User: What shape does this take?
Amino acid sequence: MSSKAKTATSQPTEPTSSAKYRLKSVLSYLLVFTVAYCCFMVNRGEPNHLFWDENYHVTSAERYLAGVAHFEPHPPLGLLLIAAGEAWSETNLSIDKQVLVGTKQISGDALPKDFDFNGMRLMPSLFAVFGALVFYGLMFQLFKNHLHALLLSSLYLFENAFTVHFRAVHLDSFQMFFSIAFLWHFVYLWQRKTRLKIWQYATLASLVGLAMMVKVNAVVLLVLFPVLYFKDAHTQDAKQRSAWLKDFASKSGISIAAIAIVFFAVFYTHASLTPTLPSADTTAGRQDLENMSQPYRSYLEQHQKLTPSMVVTIAHDYYKFMDKDHLGVPKLDITKPGENGSHPMHWPFHDRNINYRWDSADGKTAYVQLVGNQLAWYSGTLAVIFCLILVINYRVFAIPPRGTWPTYHLIEVFTGLYVAFMLLHLWLITQRVMYLYHYFIGLMISYVLLALLWQYLSEVHATFAKYRTRILAIASAAYLSSYLFFLPLSNHTPMTKEQCDRRNISISHIVDCH
Assistant: This one.
């Protein structure tokens, strides 16, 4: 590896205990929070109508507020948080929301009059802000530079798809927060030079457990545990085989136990907050009663207490409902008119963005369009391709990387995680239809790879290293410009047909203009 490249990228490290360092950290987090608040919290009540999966999730959240036992297609954590936001905000206390309790899906026309979405959308929007903060933390953990981490945070802050999806009554902002927090902690542990403690594995496992308790496809993050342990086992001299097996068993066991504790805590909360037997007079109640075991019914009828074994029984019934519901989801059919689903192999190229809602008045139309930041999206895809080539060159053709090994090893780890993500979803697409937003974890991994690629190029090319900050600033400004260009589609902003048509300049078709 080139010593010249290494010299060009070496930077003095400021002591983390210095007042200047702490001030920079506080100001950086404050800036990220402010921008994220503007992107995700402001205007979250618009449109004041249901769109996409909100017609399912508002009913689920209301059942928690009413204390009625129920099952849902997704694990409980995200829905519990949505309900907490509605309870905390108290925006709809003056209206009767009982109609939401009796159905699994509600139309906009059936919503209570004067229903305010700000409460239901509060926690998804707030966790979108938290996601920006942990993404900044991840970038700083990687590069130990406040300015670079701020500029790289534009990948998250100025992602149009996040703006649309995260501030709605959807689950993805919760999953993204826990997933990025997991990746941040993983990188922190990866960079340590000393042997990892058993509790550090437990903390990491708790984060992935929380992500899985929002949406189960976060299970892909588990592939990083053996990768981390393999590195961890090589930070010390070789041990006796029996000692190694004991160490492996204890750290694997604590990781599994931590995930189990998270699962138990979530389902205990779920059961504690919903002690009321659903009504057989409602469609939702009948569906839930059909899938309840007799022990669960006995608990709801107050014949049994909420013991640990009862929590396990409730979780088992919930899982059976999820599995049954999953089998009832249609598969992808690209020949079907109006099919919004898409194939995972097309996701990196932004195929099949979705028009969630459009409203026309006075010669203008306002859209809620699942459209990504095109420039950032394709930058991430190119980074994935470059990193795949880099890994194949080394692992297949034995061509060593030209950058430093720490950077290359992280590129290899995150490239492997991306491949695992795609393989999982290539299997899932054979089971059910999937949509562009199912790529969000993969998109985030591609953004991490894009950041690592920027670092790699700084290590390989002295000229790139010299202007690395300027290059990053120009790229961030370009991402902001792209974000602002597509923002009317994200913000439900009224546009003429001519203004809308201007947005169809991307490789992929963006929107059908009305």
Summary: The beta strands are 354-361, 364-370.
